[in-house]
Design brief:
The structure holds 3 protein chains of 3 kinds. Chain A is α/β, with parallel strands linked by helices. Chain A has 20 helices and 14 strands. Helix content of chain A is 52%, strand content 13%. Chain B has a domain at 71-230 and 259-275: MetI-like (MetI-like fold). The two termini of chain B are 35 Å apart. The chains are: A alpha/beta, B mainly alpha, C mainly alpha.
Chain lengths: 412, 281, 288
């Protein structure tokens, strides 16, 4: 029954596209939340308009989706396109010879000139372009409840010391100063702006991008861990294993004052009909002014022996890197287009502010974990942060030493 | 004596309450509208129970881009379930019969090997299994997921049938052989009729195990055959703005319904089957 | 005689093949990988014991491994105790046996992807039991184990016992039913108190069933993955991590199957070492 229905759907879709089941592209990705699904729909619609047939293959959770892709590739039946982690992860795929080269599409679309250098470096392997960056998320945003801030006459804090003082006031007024879900990756999202705010953006880049172990053992890092320990007392008891979008509800409903996550949070606000700087506030995290921690989603195209699939992949890549399509996609995704020449006038106030920082050049463009480390090292950092944040006995000194050790071994 | 009886019932009822709390919460939440869930207690009874969330879960909940509800996965799960249960139970029965009654050389070794094999978690052997299945052309297909379920069911199925048949008297087999009956005739005409209870136990175990499986279905079944549990996970993790807990709970109950019904209907046979020596040490 | 024996061997041969290839062949492959440099796909360069050295130096593995024993022993003892007690009570001629049996058995039929969220809600300090009791008028009541690093693993035991106790109860009930009613009559005549009858006579008779229950529960402990993910996510931090989840995380998310394989080998080795004596004793006792 399901088979007949999906066959019927395929037929209807291909009739709408004006060609009999032309260029089917089954795409594996892990965008399953509200704003994300809408955003993916933009790519699907445009691809279908240009004569292709988008076959959606959403798998819940990055690791499961990547596993599904890897198993398909190992099983000899690779998807036409798969979402992947940028950086070391995608280079590992390319190293194994598993990816289609996109150099000709990149040339005709003028990609390299219109992408931040850090991104170009991370989508290339051995001089070839092997992945398509579709968005540029900023990971160091603070979303806050305008109602609580206005009521207590607060402005977004300039640095972490000020934030801690404000948190005390907010707590006294009966609100939750810091909303966070007790999952390792959420704790890491908090850690990165805390680290950047404590060591400054040049040092942050040196530690993350250059793996500077001396700086990683230094006082800036220790201060960051101390701030993390202090922040703990301003969170609420209901945080164990709570999802990020459930946690964001606390800010939406004005029960919590702030949450630190990337600009993908805007999608959830938008789906609830809330407008930035009207119903809720967005600001760059304390101490992070002039720096944008970049988080990039990419699609990779597993190598395929059939020439018609190759043509489909190239078309899909073109669609995804089209400036206008990227702008539309990011309207729903809540991020900036990866392409710097895309027209972002339709994007909201927060995005515009983010673009201004990015336009300030490479000095403002910071890597996040994925652009800096392999998933293994990223995992080690994640284990350390989550263990420290939830511990009542681990000292900042011990954490700093452990962190420095991880950075020192990051390239082995 | 009377005080003792009251204490007995009190304890049993208390235990029943502890056991049913999660189910009650799931059911009650599925009958409430979202505003009530947001503001009320999770333990409160629904003010005006309605089945809107159930309808939405079945018909129109979103699993990624498609918003067709969970019914798509329902039929897939059945198409996976029926052949997998039938074949794995049969395989277990034949194996158990062969091991217990015919006792070929190496029977004990095979049995131990199978029992130890039951402990090996899937995650550990996933990658080589993918490679093996794709080499025989079964990867990402309906026959493939069925084969995987049969393979992973072999240890427990063989074990329980073997224990059961080992409890039957040897005279049965000897008498039949004297009469000239062979392996297959004895199985069909003598063993099977005696095995009704243990067959039901095996079917119950396999139905719940296979219906509730998530990992194997995700990896081996392929997108077109995705079972209901995979769809459920997509629904629970696809949220239009806010987590629609009532829809998630309803979808959860719909997914749990078939094995639940199997349990309600045949719980009695389960106990009877165990009594019949199914799981004797 | 020889010809009919052949049929049995033919029937068993696919199972032998599958067991050899799928279970043991794959397990051997995994063990081999644990001695290589593999990261996100297999790489057959021999690497000695490096993966194991790294594994034992990883704090998270130490926690997960010891959790396996804490969780395992508590779950086995807990489920056995609860299941046995319930079975004994139901065996004493209570009415509504069908109802009780169904209520205790149904958890086994629901997967944790399904019930994990309900448990999370019940145990959450902000919306679950703690919140409920405080609202009832006990403002100092605390039950936030799920948020405590040293207590979170016990919440997993709760949910695990809830899941498995019904099965144990059903098995034990069947065993109790098999006890000769004459024994009860005889001991009543002799005036021996009930609890002594259970302890001294009935329970020893149930020993083979107890062994079976231990096996079934141990398998469930080793394979635990859904339970951890749905309830605590391995947290807070990684305090409630279990080897089953560790292996999966390293295979997929961390893209490091070298580490995952080493962890799997250690995990399986420990379990086999603990259970092999059981199997040996059990097989020897079986009526042949």
């Amino acid at each position: 029954m399901a088979r007949t229905r999906s066959a019927l759907m395929g037929l209807v879709m291909s009739m709408a596209a004006g060609a009999a089941s032309a260029q089917p592209a089954d795409v594996i990705h892990w965008w399953t939340s509200g704003g994300e699904s809408k955003a993916v729909g933009v790519f699907a619609a445009e691809f279908n308009k240009r004569g292709g047939t988008w076959i959606d293959n959403a798998v819940v959770g990055g690791p499961a989706a990547r596993a599904a892709s890897m198993n398909r590739i190992a099983g000899g039946n690779p998807p036409v396109a798969t979402m992947w982690n940028v950086g070391v992860a995608v280079r590992q795929l390319a190293e194994q010879g598993l990816l289609t080269n996109l150099d000709d599409v990149a040339k005709s679309g003028n990609w390299v000139a219109n992408l931040p250098p850090l991104i170009v470096k991370n989508i290339s392997y051995d001089g070839h372009i092997v992945a398509v960056p579709v968005d540029l998320h900023g990971g160091n945003w603070m979303f806050y409840s305008k109602k609580i801030y206005d009521e207590l006459k607060l402005q977004p804090a300039k640095d972490w010391d000020e934030f801690l003082v404000q948190a005390e006031k907010i707590k006294a007024a009966g609100y939750i100063p810091l909303a966070i879900g007790g999952q390792p990756f959420q704790e890491v999202w908090l850690w990165m702006p805390v680290l950047l705010g404590s060591t400054g953006k040049e040092n942050f880049k040196k530690i993350y991008a250059d793996h500077d172990a001396t700086l990683a053992a230094g006082p800036g890092v220790k201060k960051a861990f101390e701030v993390m320990a202090k922040l703990r007392q301003y969170t609420d008891a209901g945080r164990p294993n709570r999802k990020w979008n459930d946690t964001l509800l606390l800010v939406q409903n004005n029960k919590a004052a702030s949450q630190f996550l990337g600009d993908w949070g805007k999608g959830e606000f938008a789906a609830a009909g809330l407008k930035p700087m009207v119903d809720y506030g967005c600001a760059i995290a304390p101490g992070n002014q002039g720096a944008y921690i970049m988080n990039v989603d990419v699609f990779a195209f597993p190598k395929n022996s059939k020439p018609e699939v190759l043509a489909t992949q190239k078309k899909l890549a073109e669609v995804m890197m089209d400036p206008a399509v990227q702008a539309q996609f990011n309207l729903f995704k809540g991020a900036l287009p990866a392409r710097l020449d895309a027209n972002i006038s339709a994007l909201d106030v927060c995005a515009q502010a983010g673009k201004q920082i990015i336009d300030g050049g490479p000095a403002n463009q910071m890597p996040n974990s994925a652009l800096a480390f392999s998933s293994d090292v990223d995992g080690q950092i994640s284990d350390l942060i989550t263990s420290y944040f939830n511990s009542t006995t681990m000292t900042a000194d011990a954490a700093t030493a452990a962190f420095a050790k991880i950075i020192a071994n990051a390239d082995k | 004596m009377k005080a003792g009886r009251i204490g007995l019932y009190a304890f049993l009822l208390g235990a029943a309450l502890f056991f049913s709390i999660p189910l009650l919460i799931v059911v009650m939440t599925s009958l409430k509208p979202m505003p009530e869930i947001r503001t009320g207690s999770i333990f409160a009874l629904p003010l005006a129970p309605n089945f809107d969330a159930w309808v939405k879960a079945w018909m129109s909940a979103c699993t990624g881009l498609a918003c067709e509800g969970i019914r798509v996965g329902f039929w897939n799960s059945f198409r996976i379930l029926i052949p997998s249960v039938a074949l794995s139970v049969m395989a277990g029965a034949l194996n158990g019969y062969a091991l217990a009654q015919w006792k070929p050389p190496g029977a004990n070794a095979l049995l131990t090997a199978l029992m130890l094999g039951a402990f090996i978690p899937y995650q550990v052997i996933l990658y080589p299994m993918v490679k093996i299945l794709s080499n025989v052309g079964l990867y990402n297909s309906l026959p493939g997921i069925i084969a995987v379920h049969i393979i992973f069911g072999l240890p427990v199925m063989t074990l329980i049938f073997r224990n059961f048949y080992a409890g039957l008297p040897d005279e049965l087999l000897k008498a039949a052989r004297v009469d000239g009956a062979g392996f297959w005739r004895i199985f069909v005409e003598i063993m099977l009729p005696l095995s009704v209870n243990i067959l039901i136990v095996a079917v119950i175990l396999q139905v719940t195990g296979i219906w509730n499986d998530y990992l194997l279905g995700l990896i081996f079944a392929g997108r077109d055959n995705a079972p209901m549990t995979v769809q459920l996970n997509l629904i629970v993790n696809t949220s239009m703005g806010e987590q629609e807990h009532n829809v998630n709970m309803a979808a959860t109950l719909l997914t749990a319904l078939p094995p639940l019904l199997v349990y309600f209907a045949s719980g009695r046979y389960f106990v009877r089957g165990i009594t019949a020596g199914a799981v004797k040490g | 005689m020889r010809i009919s024996g052949l049929a049995a061997r033919l029937v068993l041969s696919p199972t032998v093949l599958v067991t050899m290839v799928c279970f043991y062949g794959c397990a051997v492959w995994t063990a081999y990988i644990s001695f290589t440099k593999s990261s996100f796909i297999p790489n057959y360069t021999f690497n000695g014991l490096a993966q194991y050295e790294r594994l034992f130096a990883t704090p998270r593995w130490g926690v997960a491994y010891s959790n396996m024993f804490i969780f395992g022993i508590l779950l086995v003892v807990g489920a056995l105790a609860v299941g046995l007690m319930l079975a004994i009570m139901i065996d004493r001629n209570v009415r509504g046996e069908g109802f009780f049996r169904t209520v205790m058995l149904y958890p086994l039929s629901m997967s944790f992807i399904v019930t994990g969220l309900a448990w999370q809600w019940v145990l959450s300090p902000s919306i679950g039991v703690q919140h409920f009791v405080r609202d009832l008028g006990f403002p100092n009541f605390t039950f936030d184990w799920i948020a405590q690093q040293d207590r979170a693993i016990y919440t997993l035991v709760f949910a695990g016992v809830w899941h498995q106790a019904g099965l144990i109860m059903a098995i034990m009930l069947a065993g109790l039913r098999g006890v000769d009613r004459d024994i009860w009559r005889a001991t009543k005549v002799e005036g021996i108190p009930t609890w002594r009858v259970y302890l001294g006579i009935v329970l020893p008779m149930l020993r083979p069933l107890v062994v079976t229950c231990v096996v079934l529960l141990s398998v469930a402990v080793v394979k635990s993955y859904d339970l951890v993910v749905a309830m605590t996510g391995g947290g807070p931090g990684f305090a409630s991590d279990l080897p089953g989840k560790f292996v999966v995380d390293f295979s997929f998310e961390r893209a490091n199957i070298g580490q995952a394989s080493a962890a799997a080998v250690v995990m399986l080795g420990s379990v086999f070492a603990a259970l092999a004596p059981y199997f040996y004793v059990e097989l020897r006792k079986r009526p042949q």
